[in-house]
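Recall the central idea of this unit: under ordinary conditions, the amino acid sequence of a chain determines the structure it adopts. In this exercise we apply that idea directly, starting from the sequence alone.
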Amino acid sequence: MKTIGLIGGMSWESSIEYYRLINQSVAEKLGGLHSARVLLYSLDFADIERIQCEDRWDDAASVLTQAGIALKQGGADFILICTNTMHKVADVVEQKVGLPVVSIIDVTGSAIVKQGLKTVGLLGTRFVMEEPFYRDRLCKGFNIDVIIPHAEGRGLIHHIIYDELCRGKISEDSRRACIEIMKQMKSDGAEGVILGCTELPLLIHPRDIDVPVFDTSRLHAEAAVNLAMT
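Accordingly, the structure predicted from this sequence is:
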């Protein structure tokens, strides 16, 4: 089995989920006492959040590259960046580290195509929803049209992620607000919804809306396990 390198700590709440999902999947596939070969490099999210807010994406790429090099030296065969937002610099990290970086955007796009959907709603941080790197990759690589919430909804989702979910706070009021935003995107033409932040599955569940919900954390973890076992 190959060794999975995780760049986590953005936030650690979702890093826990990655570790659980990966090991749970390996145990289900192999049975017995099997678990995954995993190396985790956990960053200080306060530093990352500051870099994001100051729009210092070259610095973000450098921080993740240093983490990736450490994982490579530790024996990782490939890397997962455990966040949607930081995939803005994933291609740079892959090139500089010299190991494959499994794209959370690509595995999500493949899952959407598999279900035959053409238009999806996207929830995530402001960076994911408003900047082109995520939507363009889905559009150009998978012919998927992406709908994002209206401005007020984008601000609310961003607040929920950074001020609640990344701090371990799960609010029923916030869950209801997210459901209303998803319903609006459905009315705007979304055939499914991407949870484009690895913390959002802690709050939103497939049962919350009657269209397919794409849990990017789970899809990313499953792709890692499949690659590790090839």
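The longest strand covers residues 4-8.
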